[in-house]
Amino acid sequence: MEIVGSLLTHDYGLSLYGYVGCCEFLEPQKPVVVPLTEQQKATVKDDLAGVLKNKECEDVVEALIAQAEKNTGFKAFSHNLMDTFGKVTSFGSDGRRQEYDAAAGSNAGSPGGIALTVNYPLSNDDPLIRNLNGRKMIHEMFHGNRDGDLTALGSGERSYTHLDMQQAAWDVAHARGLTNYMSAGVAVFSGKRPTVDDGSSLMFGELIYKYCKTWEQP
Ligand SMILES: [Zn+2]
């Protein structure tokens, strides 16, 4: 299972303040990928399905997808991230399974597919961890949800970027009247609409945290 031309980025996350996806950097080398087991794939899928079971969460995700389409001019593969999850053709881990790190991107080696790597520990019995992991999957599937010309564009260019996600979050938050929304003492959506990639789309994570606080067995 080789990842070719995928979005070679990693999303690290913090659970503080509900952030999922804290820092991301470009990595010039190909990651060493160990395939996930069938059981691990099912766990990751249910992490996502269980957090989207919350209608408030499903609605805000749908609004964010529609907003990203409008802002970027690039259609999304689907407005339902479970459909997007169905596009994952490569499931891997770097084998450490320690850091809160995951990545997703369109996979040129498998046109139309998404390569996903999940490096954090999975859990089947803690709803809080499953919520955290489900929110992480929302972030990753959002990256990979951009539908594009899979043969023409280069690596990473086919995914929604962190800046796309920040701007969509800012627009959706403002449409919902969250201009002065505070999280951990920070006014998240105040000031100017973001024009610079913060490397992790914290603002997107904050909006997801606000609306996606639960996990239910799908
Ligand atoms: Zn990311």
Question: Can you offer a commentary on this structure?
Answer:
With 218 residues, this protein is of the alpha+beta class. The protein has one domain (11-211). It has helices at residues 38-52, 55-72, 81-85, 127-144, 162-175, 202-211; strands at residues 11-12, 34-35, 88-93, 101-107, 113-118, 182-183, 186-187. The strands form 2 sheets. Strands 1-4-5-3-2 form a 5-stranded mixed sheet, with helices on one face. Strands 6-7 form a two-stranded antiparallel sheet. A hairpin with a 2-residue loop joins β6 and β7. α1 packs across α4. It is globular and about 45 Å long. 43% of the residues are buried. Mean pLDDT is 79; it is low at 1-10, 13-29 and 149-156. The structure holds zinc ion.
Q: N-to-C terminal Cα separation, in Å? A: 29 Å
Tell me the fraction of residues in β-strands, as a range: 5-15%
- Got a strand count? 7
Query: How many helices does DSSP assign?
Result: 6
Low-confidence blocks of residues:
1-10, 13-29, 149-156
Secondary structure class reads alpha+beta
Q: Which sequence of strands runs across the widest sheet?
A: 1-4-5-3-2
Give the ordered list of helices and strands.
EEHHHEEEHHEEH
Average pLDDT rating? 79
Proportion of helical residues: 25-40%
Notable features of this structure?
5-stranded mixed β-sheet; alpha+beta; disordered N terminus; 218 residues; 37% helix
Give a summary of the structure in a few sentences.
This protein has helices at about 40-50, 55-70, 80-85, 125-145, 160-175, 200-210, and strands at about 10, 35, 90-95, 100-105, 115-120, 180-185, 185. It is α+β, with helices and mostly antiparallel strands. The strands form 2 sheets. The protein has a 5-stranded mixed beta sheet with strand order 1-4-5-3-2, with helices on one face. A two-stranded antiparallel ribbon has the order 6-7.
